Queue: 3 jobs
Job 1
Amino acid sequence: MKVKIAYIEEPPFGWTEPDRVATGADIELAETVLRAIGVTHIEHHLTTFSELLPGVEAGRWDVQIRPHSQGNRSRARC
């Protein structure tokens, strides 16, 4: 089974290494859970915050890794 994961650059939760490999705490957690349920191929897609949910809705990826709320981002939404 193949699953496409979308993520944004938000270290230490998710980022792209110089060799173009997605890594980070949330990416590793998602990979562990997906492999535990039988996923054999995981494809990573770097995107922007504003495209996370629209990308799921449009079928560009199956799962999005939710960004963690930072103080300045939380205040901006209030």
Job 2
Amino acid sequence: MNYFNTPKRIDHTVIKFCKSISPHSKPEYIQLRPELWCRPNDCYNNVEQKVAKYGGKRQLGWRIQVMPDPNPKFMIEAVHHAIWITATGQKIDITPQPNVVGKIVFVSDDITKLENHRIGEKYQALLDCPIVHEYVGLCNLESEHYTSKTKLIKQPKPPVELLMKQEQLKDLIFRKHGRL
């Protein structure tokens, strides 16, 4: 199953979520053209190497995803990300994205600074359901307390109990709202 995917439309929900993260930028579709040498989940270094070799510049921002696919799409997520802007101004995502074909939704962010620690994801519920809200709350907790405190070169290590509770809630969501 594909648990993350690109929103099919940049609708009011996507725009509102993006405004809460980067109020002065508009979400847009960016062409996905992964380079063979690029490593998944290493967008900052991938783009830095591309700029060093071919020019252009790096743009930081957020990749927007809905979760899961197939339905029910119960959560929207923003993952801090870097894309390459060519010398002619074309925006391209060169980092391989699992379960994404063709394009991503990206919102630029010139305010959030990349330093020595990971920048945690941001989540919002798409279904008005207490179980979904609890799940999203745990995802945001994981992001704030574990991901954001992890050095860039390391993987976050949230407590197993937190991860187990998230899985339990996800199963409840699927049971309540169905799985197509």
Job 3
Amino acid sequence: MMKTALLGATCALLIGGSALAQTATPNAGGAAETEMSVSTKDVFTAPPGTDPNTVGSIQPKDGQVLATNFIGQSVYESDKADAATVGEVNDLILTADGKIEAAIVGVGGFLGVGEKDVAVSPNQLQMATRSDGKTWLVMKATKDQLNSAPAFDRTKLAEGVAKPADSGTASPPAQ
């Protein structure tokens, strides 16, 4: 009986001690938290002739496409049936007024290894449409021109919109 009581007391102390060790002490060391200032600005501007305060009533129009329809699409050297792939659209650079300034095309490499990003003017891309309605992207520049072009440096662009899901929290990103 005595052994059981002693064993129970020892287990209780060990479990309780580790639970106390895991308890976080808020604001340890007495250092006061500093609040960082936050500034907010518009990401895009409203198209001319539209109400900038419109919410939820904008409808698709003929000729509009989603950026996601381009990202990840292969780009071909011509509109011929046997055209070779020259790269893949990896991203689009947008201006503050929502216009596409450049397409980032991944070229070279094999299965993404050794690939480099090249920024091309949007007028370098064309949409080819076959008589059955199938579409694909065609590049005016040659594969050699793309491979010899300088690599695009993403680090020189401002960071985009933070994704709360990446940080595991729904609050704004910590600075």
